[in-house]
Write a structure and sequence with these properties.
This protein has 137 residues and is α+β, with helices and mostly antiparallel strands. Strands 1, 2, 3, 4, 5, 6 and 7 form a 7-stranded mixed sheet that branches. A hairpin with a 4-residue loop joins strand 6 and strand 7. The two termini are 12 Å apart.
Length: 137
């Protein structure tokens, strides 16, 4: 049986191909040093187990979320300037990973940007990408 932790581990492994600093479920409150960029992989919604046919074949269908955080550039004119070049590069690299398959067990596909770039109020802009997770029956 596939667990939420298995799904998060796969998401984290994939995110590390794009960005060396990654976190599971939520961003940290503090780090030793200011991070220039990082990705948070999460399962913010409920897991839906479904059955198919008389044999009770089952599958999981849920939405997974990757959030890309990029540190604001500080200039004299704007201390919270959005670094669109870096965000675009990271988003494009993350989209390039899809579809993600694991051992004929499950796939993560159909990524879409749901929040293109928004300030978190803590010195970062973030982009939220949702994708569809489905087990393979």
């Amino acid at each position: 049986m596939i667990t939420p932790e298995d799904i998060l581990e796969t998401m984290d492994q994939e995110a590390k191909k794009v960005c060396s600093r990654t976190f599971l479920q939520e961003r940290p409150n503090a780090t030793d040093s200011k991070l220039k960029e990082f990705i948070v992989s999460s399962l913010p919604y409920s897991v839906s187990n479904k059955t198919l046919g008389e044999k009770d074949d089952w599958w999981i269908d849920l939405t997974v979320v990757f959030e890309i955080f990029v540190a604001d550039r500080k200039t004299d004119q704007n201390p919270k300037e959005f670094d669109s070049v870096k965000m675009k590069k990271l988003r494009k690299s993350l989209f390039g990973l899809f579809p993600i398959f694991r051992k004929d067990q499950y796939k993560i596909d159909y990524p879409r940007t749901v929040i293109p770039a928004s300030s978190d109020g803590n010195g970062y802009h973030y982009t939220r990408i949702q994708a569809k997770f489905t087990t393979m029956v």
